[in-house]
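=== RUN LOG ===
request id: a7f3
mode: sequence -> structure
chains: 1
length: 167
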Amino acid sequence: MNTKQKILSLTQLKEVVTDLKKLGKKIVTTNGAFDMLHIGHKRVLEESKLLGDILIVGINSDTSVKRYKSDLRPIIPEIERAELVAALACVDYITIFNESDPINFLELVKPAIHTKGGDYNPEKLLETPVIQKNGGKIVIIPGKVQSTTDIIDRILKIYGSKNSQKK
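=== RESULT ===
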C-alpha cells in the first residue's frame, strides 16, 4: 500500500475498522500533531505497533493544532504531516481530525489499546474515559519524549542569532 492510500477520512476509516474487527485484528491507536516528525514520534509509533495487529494514527488538523498549541503552529501542513507519518512502516492507517481532542476518532475506532508517550499520565488523559468505556486500555510508552516545541526553541537559539548577524 502506498503512503497516500494509508490516509483515510473518518468515513473511510469506519469501514476499514469494521472489516478489520470482523477479521479479529487487534487495533492500536495513538494521536497527536506530529509536527516536525522526530525520533520520539518514531519510537512511540514503533512501540505502539508491537502491541497489536493494526496501528491507526489520529493526526490533529491544522485548525486543531492552532486551537490547542498556538497560532504559530503547526510548522508543517496537515497533509504533509500525515504523509510523513504514513511513510513509516509501522503505521497502517491515518486519519486527520478537526476537533481539539481525539474523542470522536476514538469513539469511531474503539481500539483495544490507545497509546501515548512517556510524558503522559493515564489518569489525566482526556482519552482514558472513552477508551475504558469501550473496553480498551491505555498504554504509556516509556521513555523520555522529545517535544517539537523543544526542537523549535533549540533551532531559534542556534540559528536565530546567527541568522540576524549574517543579514
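=== NOTES ===
The chain is about 45% helix and 15% strand.
The longest strand covers residues 54-60.
=== END ===
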